[in-house]
Amino acid sequence: MKPPHPIPYQGSKRNIADDILYYFPDRVSTLIEPFVGSAAISIAAAMKGLARHYWLNDLNKPLMDLWEQIINHPEHLSQGYDRLWHEQQDNPREYYDKIRSQFNLSGKPQLFLYLLARCVKASVRYNSNGEFNQSPDNRRCGAKPNTMRNMILGVSALFKGKSKTTAQNYRDVLQKAECCDLVYMDPPYQGVSGNRDSRYLTGVQFFEFVEALQELNQRCIRYIVSYDGRTGEKMYGASLPPELSLTRVEIQAGRSSQATLLGRKDVTIESLYLSPALSGQLSQMPSKHRHMQMSLFGTDS
């Protein structure tokens, strides 16, 4: 069955979710996503029953309010989206601008869902004041209400009763991780769009993030990090430092759409970093991981 994805985020890991799930251990008490975004990995993991519980977190409170509605109040949210979708029909562009202004004042989940379904390339953008400022895709009106409802109900069925949603700083979340859990992190990283990345309300400082990973290592917490990558010869983000003793693998994320437009065949490669606690377990498992060559900063997958 195709995984349900009610939140269409550009940069989502949904297309390489199975490649990331390959590095999951056999027993996970809680899968923790401190930078959950569209929750592509949690959704994929829940589809396969890879964890008993799920903790979805993001510092973006309107996003987490939306996730709470998706999981715990799917019918109410679906009805709100249905109303907005039908009200836009006379003048979709003017209506989008009105809803965007209302959302920036109220932060209401159904307004946010409508904007995410309609914005250009499903690409979230914020201005320096933290306001959603992405333009609409005038070629489409967003997912039809029945389609959206099915996706919302599908996600609710996966998470309701075995998940929690929070809008906390990622370091506060990491402090509560336990050895039986697995943390998956896909933070905003340096090198994507200059000093400030307009896709995120707040950035993540490189050295602060490295310090947080060091603390996880000291506590023997299992974690996976999607951090840097490359397309052709162009690099995105600085590599995580060797002193963390991480195992690095590379995942092919497909041909770059920008390269295709320019007539090139560059393939996007994303880096995945496995913590010492995790890679040590996987290398000893009498399963599909046993043959894997787990070496510091190796590229075997």
Radius of gyration: 19 Å
Per the CATH scheme, the topology name of the largest domain is Rossmann fold
Portion in beta strands? 15-25%
- CATH level 1 class label of the largest domain: Alpha Beta
Helix content, binned percent: 25-40%
**Number of distinct beta strands:** 8
Report, as a whole number of angstroms, the end-to-end distance: 25 Å
Which key terms come to mind for this protein?
Adenine-specific Methyltransferase, domain 2, eight-stranded mixed β-sheet, 11 helices, Rossmann fold, 301 residues, single chain, 2 domains
Q: Could you characterize what this model shows?
A:
The chain has 301 residues and is α/β, with parallel strands linked by helices. It folds into two domains: 169 residues, Rossmann fold (3-Layer(aba) Sandwich); 89 residues, Adenine-specific Methyltransferase, Domain 2 (Adenine-specific Methyltransferase, domain 2). Strands 1, 2, 3, 4, 5, 6, 7 and 8 form an eight-stranded mixed β-sheet that branches. The protein is globular, with a radius of gyration of 19 Å. It starts with 16 loop residues before the first helix and ends in a 19-residue tail after the last helix.
